[in-house]
Write a structure and sequence with these properties.
The protein is of the alpha/beta class and about 140 residues long. It has two helices and four strands, in the order βββαβα. α1 packs across α2. The mean pLDDT is about 90. This is DUF488 domain-containing protein.
């Protein structure tokens, strides 16, 4: 299934089940109830707990080093295994950061991964939070 993988990123609170299979990429699991079950945990994409205290430049350096050390093949195999179990080739890589309300210089590991993945594979990893919200149902829907 790995050749068919379609990757997206978003945050836990914005994810909708029709977007694909939700995948945790965070050090810790959400401490709030999710209205959906996670399809898996992409441990190789999660930062370490110690990294959470770093500024962007050292964080980015360490994070990209970790991605490079794992390599595209290992990451693709891990994600393909999650997709196989979930029965969905669309994986939505989730974390806590709300990039839609953050300042323009906001950063997040899920977008660092997306840029790295595109650089390595040529495959774009869109941020679903950038897509418009679905219209609210009206009286006539």
């Amino acid at each position: 299934m790995e050749d068919e993988l379609k990757l997206f990123t978003s945050r836990y609170q914005r994810f909708r089940p029709d977007q694909g299979a939700p995948v945790r990429t965070t050090v810790g699991a959400p401490r709030f109830p999710l209205p959906y079950d996670l399809a898996g945990f992409a441990r190789v994409l999660a930062p370490s707990y110690a990294m959470l205290k770093l500024d962007e430049a050292p964080y980015r350096y360490i994070y990209v080093e970790r991605l490079e050390a794992a390599g595209v093949d290992v990451i693709a195999d891990d994600l393909a295994a999650i997709a196989d179990v979930a029965g969905d080739e669309r994986l939505v890589l989730l974390c806590f950061c709300d990039l839609s309300v953050s300042p323009p210089n906001a950063w997040c590991h899920r977008r660092m991964f997306a840029a790295w993945w595109q650089e390595q594979t040529g495959q774009e990893v869109p941020e679903l939070a950038e897509l418009p919200e679905p219209p609210a149902p009206t009286l006539f829907d």
